[in-house]
Amino acid sequence: MTIAAAVTAPTIAPLHVAPRHAAPAVQPRAAPRRDPSPLNPNAPAQQALRTAASAPPSSSSSDSARAHIANLDKVLGKPPQVPRVAASNAQDPEQEPLSVRHGLLNALNLSFFVPMPGMRARGTAADEHMSPRSLMHMQQLLSADSPRASPRSTIAPRWRSLHGEGGWAGLLDPLDSDLRRELLRYGDFVQAAYQAFHSLPTASARHRGLMLPDRSYRPTRSLFATSALSMPPWAKRPNTPEWLTQQSNWVGYVAVCESEREVARMGRRDIAIVLRGTATCLEWAENLRASLVPLDGESSDGAETGAEEPKVARGFLSLYKTAGEKVKSLSEEVMEEVRRLMEKYKGEELSITVVGHSLGAALALLVADEVAATIPDAPPVAVVSFGGPKVGNAAFVDRLGSSGKVNVLRIVNAGDVVTKVPGVAPRLPHKKEQYQHVGAELRIDSKNSPCLRPDAGPACRHDLEAYLHLIDGFTGTGRPFRHDARRSVIRLLQLQRGNVKKEYVNRARELGVDPTAPADVGRSMAYGNCAVASPSS
């Protein structure tokens, strides 16, 4: 039957008898009805056809004929060509603002959080300076938690070299990837100490909630430091918090690795001694007591001591050796706990890692020295110092080096003034009275960060989170920032917003992060179970 014959056929014929070549098309389909695409030029006609088909039968034969012809055209005709909207939109000036907005957001891959039609991830050369590689990577850095944890390989065969045997020769520049992960983990332990203290600064040891970012470690003892100074009554203010002026304060903790899987990965059971930096008024006052005194106590007035006598800063030794009214001295607490853990895990391969930031780094050296001097069978001791000051004279440096048990790694941010103090004590003829640094040095620089301003201030250069951010991206001297750095920069943004490049601040706002909000309100961005962030001291 031809199309012309179909036009002159009776009205009811198309409803019951269909041409053989068109029979497959007129059978009803079980598939659900789909709305016509707005880009299909035949969409209005198809919609009209559906409307006519759903209407009651009409007596008009012409309407039935037109419906049948449309039905045949759908079967016999070729599908209409869908116009390419990309080319038309490119010339449409009204679409340009939308394209620009989506261009900025597409690069952040926001479809992962909020699906947006037509969004595609793309970057431009102009955006390259905003992140180590692209805006996609910036989104990862600005996420609350890194989407993928940095993989940990087995370090059992080489744990001694990573722990300082050989002075970290060949591991610092370029920075070994396994060593980087170890340093970041110990740095997060110090961040946890800061958070635990500032969440409950006046709490006793049994009331202090401390959850470590690495759950393979378990805290075993809280540590307190007591100042020999006291705040004069005239210096106290009515609204000053008590913890700012009290003599004894929680300063850190001892933790031990209890995960047998992690013990097997590391090749030994690690004991971590973690110490925070300066936080109270009396601790600041002790930092200013920079005169050198013998390790075994105060020297008598006018007594001439040998040039080779090890000496350390008076304020640091005071915080380490002074006992409080209700707590033991930091020295007693640490030595008791180390001996207890050594007895508990007797016969196992052990290591001791003492880690601290700022003041905590100075106290860490005193801890390591006493462990090596008073515990003959002590395991290898490593000190990881983040932004630590000078502690003692040349004889003290020689004492640590000659022990054969202590290895010190100092991580120094270029321009961090704390690493340059205390300065030089008054030099006496033929006396080694000047301060000296001890151990190997890993030097990083804020200027190498893609998100920190080159003129970042001294507070930023000493901030612990800035240190960890730079370690995460450091590959070697003169090399670019690591393109696959994974550490979130939200904490850094909230603590050092004025020192973060404007591009990162703007991108953070687009991602819904408020740079002006206090760090880690309600939930820690880095740990998920600690209260507040570390101060910049």
Explain the overall architecture.
The structure is a single chain. The protein is 36% helix and 11% strand. By secondary structure, it is α/β, with parallel strands linked by helices. Helix 16 (359-374) links the parallel strand 6 (350-357) and strand 7. Helix 14 packs across helix 16 (359-374). The longest helix has 23 residues, at 177-199. It is globular.
Write a compact overview of the structure shown.
With 537 residues, the chain is of the alpha/beta class. The chain contains 21 helices and 9 strands.
| Mean of all residue-level pLDDT scores | 75
Major sheet details: 7 strands, mixed
How far from one another are the termini?
93 Å
Question: What is the oligomeric state here?
Answer: single chain
- Number of DSSP strands? 9
Helix count? Answer: 21
Helix/strand structural class: alpha/beta
Q: What Rg is obtained from the alpha carbons, in whole angstroms? A: 35 Å
What are the segments in which pLDDT stays under 50 over at least 5 consecutive residues?
A: 10-18, 75-134, 145-150, 300-304, 424-430, 521-537
Beta-strand percent range: 5-15%
- Percent of residues in helices: 25-40%
Give the spatial strand order of the biggest sheet. 1-2-3-6-7-8-9
What's the shape? Answer: globular
Salient structural properties:
disordered C terminus; 537 residues; 21 helices; 7-stranded mixed β-sheet; two-stranded antiparallel sheet; 11% strand; globular; alpha/beta
